[in-house]
Write a structure and sequence with these properties.
alpha+beta, six-stranded antiparallel β-sheet, Aminoglycoside 3'-phosphotransferase, Chain: A, domain 2, 2 domains
C-alpha cells in the first residue's frame, strides 16, 4: 500500500480514539463563532502523533487535533503550541489554516484539543509529485522552497513568537532533547547507529545562527495543502515540532528528500530526478539561498546527519507508542520498522561529514 492510500481520506473513528461527541458539540457552540450543528465526526487516516478528526456540519467542515489518550512523554503532543503558532503566523499572512479555538480542559473530551479550518486542496504524499505533469513539476518544488523561505523571513518578535523557544544553541539543545527521549524510552529498545550519533553529534556542532527563526520541524510535501489546480501552497500543516531555532536545520530537513531512499517517507534517492524534471539538490539549495541571502550551506552533511538522527528519534518514539499500545495511526507499526534503516542512514551522513 502506498503512502497516499495509507494516509489520505477519513473514516470511522478508530477504537481507543473515541470521545464524548455531545461534550465536543457543546464546546463548539460556546467557543466557535457561527458554529451550527448537528455534528458528525470522522477520523483522518494520517496523524502519527496527534489524532486528527474531520468535524462535519451542514454548513462547513472543521479539523480537530487532540492529544492522544494514555501515558505521554513530557513535552510531547503539544497541541497548545500548534494552536499558538498557526494563530500567530496566520496574522503574518503565512499560509496556515485559520484557528477557531483551543481547549486545554481535559474534562471536555479527555485530552486537550484545538479546532481549525478545513482547507480544501491537494496533499501530495509522494515527493515526486506523480499527479503533476513533467513540465509542471518544477513549479511545485519551487512553491515548497518559496514557502519555507517565507517562513524563515518572519521576525518572531513581530509575530508575537519571540518566546516560542529558547534563543541560541539550537543544535546542542535539540541533540540533548532527542538523545534523552531516545535513552529514556527503554520500551522501544536501542539501536547501535543511534548510540553512535548520540556521541558524535554534540562533539561536532556547526556555528550557531545569529537570528533564530520560527521553524516548522517537519516540513515536507505531505504536510502542505496545495491549491486544487495551481502550484501554490494554501496551508502548512502539523506544527507540533515547531519552535524557534536554526533555519538551516528546518531547510535541510526538507532537503533530506534527496537523500532518503524512495519508499521511505518522502524519499527521492534512487529515482530518475532528471527524467522526472525534478530540480537537483544543488539547484534546490541555490534557490533557497537566493531567497534568504545565503552564500551556500557549509556543514550540509552535519545537518543531514542531525535531521536523520532526529527523524529516527521520532520514529523511535512511534515504536515506543506501538509497544505501549498508544500509537494513533493504523500503519504506525510499519513506520516503526524503518527505525534501523533511518539510524544507519544518519550515521552514513555523519561519515560523509568526517565521522569515523
Amino acid at each position: 500500500m502506498d503512502r497516499s492510500a495509507q494516509n489520505s481520506g477519513s473514516g470511522a473513528v478508530r477504537p481507543g480514539q473515541e470521545f464524548d461527541l455531545r461534550a465536543l458539540e457543546a464546546w463548539l457552540r460556546d467557543k466557535v463563532e457561527d458554529y451550527a450543528g448537528p455534528l458528525t465526526v470522522e477520523q483522518f487516516k494520517g496523524g502519527q502523533s496527534n489524532p486528527t478528526y474531520k468535524l462535519l456540519t451542514p454548513g462547513r467542515a472543521y479539523v480537530m487535533r487532540r492529544k492522544p489518550p494514555g501515558k505521554l512523554l513530557p513535552g510531547a503532543h503539544a497541541v497548545e503550541r500548534e494552536y499558538r503558532v498557526i494563530t500567530a503566523l496566520g496574522k503574518q499572512d503565512f499560509p496556515v489554516a485559520k484557528s477557531y479555538g483551543l481547549c486545554e480542559d481535559e474534562a471536555v473530551i479527555g485530552t486537550a484539543f484545538y479546532v481549525m479550518e478545513m482547507v480544501e486542496g491537494r496533499i501530495f504524499w509522494d515527493t515526486a509529485f506523480p499527479e503533476v505533469s513533467d513540465a509542471g513539476r518544477p513549479a511545485y518544488f519551487d512553491a515548497m522552497n518559496a514557502t519555507m523561505a517565507a517562513l524563515h523571513a518572519i521576525d518572531p518578535e513581530a509575530a508575537g513568537l519571540g518566546d516560542y523557544g529558547k534563543p541560541g544553541n539550537y543544535f546542542a539543545r535539540q541533540i540533548a532533547r532527542w538523545s534523552r527521549q531516545y535513552m529514556e524510552d527503554v520500551e522501544a529498545g536501542r539501536v547501535a547507529a543511534m548510540d553512535r550519533l548520540v556521541e558524535w553529534l554534540p562533539a561536532n556542532l556547526p556555528p550557531d545562527e545569529p537570528q533564530p527563526r520560527v521553524i516548522h520541524g517537519d516540513f515536507r510535501c505531505d504536510n502542505m495543502i496545495f491549491h486544487p489546480t495551481e502550484p501554490r501552497v494554501l496551508a502548512v500543516l502539523d506544527w507540533e515540532l515547531s519552535t524557534l531555532g536554526h533555519p538551516l536545520a528546518d531547510f535541510t530537513y526538507n532537503l533530506m528528500m534527496y537523500r532518503m531512499p524512495a519508499g521511505i517517507a518522502t524519499g527521492l534517492a534512487g529515482r530518475d530526478i532528471s527524467g522526472l524534471n525534478i530540480p537537483s539538490e544543488a539547484d534546490y539549495v541555490a534557490a533557497y539561498c537566493a531567497r534568504t541571502g545565503r552564500d551556500g550551506i557549509p556543514d550540509l552533511d552535519f545537518y543531514m546527519a542531525f535531521n536523520l538522527f532526529r527523524l529516527a528519534g521520532i520514529v523511535h518514539g512511534i515504536k515506543g507508542r506501538v509497544v505501549r499500545g498508544t500509537a494513533t495511526s493504523a500503519h504506525a507499526s510499519q513506520m516503526a520498522g524503518s527505525l534501523d534503516m533511518l539510524a544507519e542512514l544518519g550515521w552514513a551522513q555523519a561519515v560523509m561529514a568526517g565521522a569515523r
